[in-house]
Every structure is written in structure tokens, then in C-alpha cells.
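#lab-general

N.A. 3:47 PM
ok so I finally got the sequence cleaned up, no stray characters, all 184 residues accounted for. can someone with queue access submit it? mine expired

B.Y. 3:52 PM
send it over

N.A. 3:53 PM
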Amino acid sequence: MKKLKILFNGILKENPTFVLVLGMCPTLGVTTSAFNGFGMGIATMFVLMLSNMLISLLKNFIPDKVRIPAFIVVIATFVSIVDLLIQGFVPALSESLGLFIPLIVVNCIVLGRAEAFASKNGVFDSMLDGIGMGLGFTLSLTLIGAIRQLLGSGCDILVFVLAPGAFFVLGFLMALIRHIQQPK
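B.Y. 4:20 PM
back already:
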């Protein structure tokens, strides 16, 4: 039961985008389509899961003075791997996401989960946390991208393809999530 709670925590209760309001740069920057949102989310989930696992393994060997730089090195390693994989296997996504993939290194979701969860928990729980937070982020970005794509391209409401459209969709979805989560 505890394992499922860890896994599903990032999907709704502590969704990185709609509840914790983290990772706004890629949320607003890449969600011009569902494909871009999904690709960015999966890339981030990969980095979250693997960096959480490795940081959890190394937590007792990393001195407190260099904890954050060490976490960033671990995260940067996995971001480099995912960046090269996307360039090699999905070049269209790589071109579309551009600089946002390397920016996963400084994404506060990834570093925040390393600091708040992986550095204090076991490897399996840290992996589940990375998957759960990554799924929540992926679902958020895909939903925002799908709505923006539908309204911006399908209905010709061009503001939704532009940056302000990301704010409108994000704000509406955040309000909806908070309304759903309110105790009745």
C-alpha cells in the first residue's frame, strides 16, 4: 500500500505542475503540442527515475558540503544520455524540444526530488517516486499540449499556440485541479 502511495503521489496529490507548480519553464515552453509535451515528460521521467535511484544508492557516500553539486553531476549524466538517445532515435522531437532537454539538469522537479526524497529513502522507493512524479509531469505536459494544439490549430484560436495560451491553459487546469481536490 505504501509503495502504491509513493507511485501515485506525483500524479494528482503532489503533481509537479498543477499542485507544486514546479518545472514551469518546460511546461510553458514546449507544450505547443501533445507530442512535445509527452516527449518532454518521458525524458524528464527517465532522468527522475534513474537519478533518484543512483542518488539513493550514493546518499551515504556523498559529503554534505558537496551534496547539491554531486546531485547535479548525477542528473547531468542522465540528461546527457537521454539527450543523445532522443537525438539518435527521435530527431524530430530533438529539434522541436531543442534547448529544453539539456535544461532538465536544472529543472527544480528533478533536483527537488533528489533532495527531498531520494537522499532520504531507499532505492526502490526512490525509483517509484521518480516514476510517479515523472508520470504526473508527463500527463500534465501532454494534457496542456493537447489542449493548446486543439484550440490553437484545430479551432484557429491562435493565442493558444503562442506563449500566453500556455498561461491560460495552465491557469484553467490548475483551478480545476484545486477545485477537484477541495474537501466537500
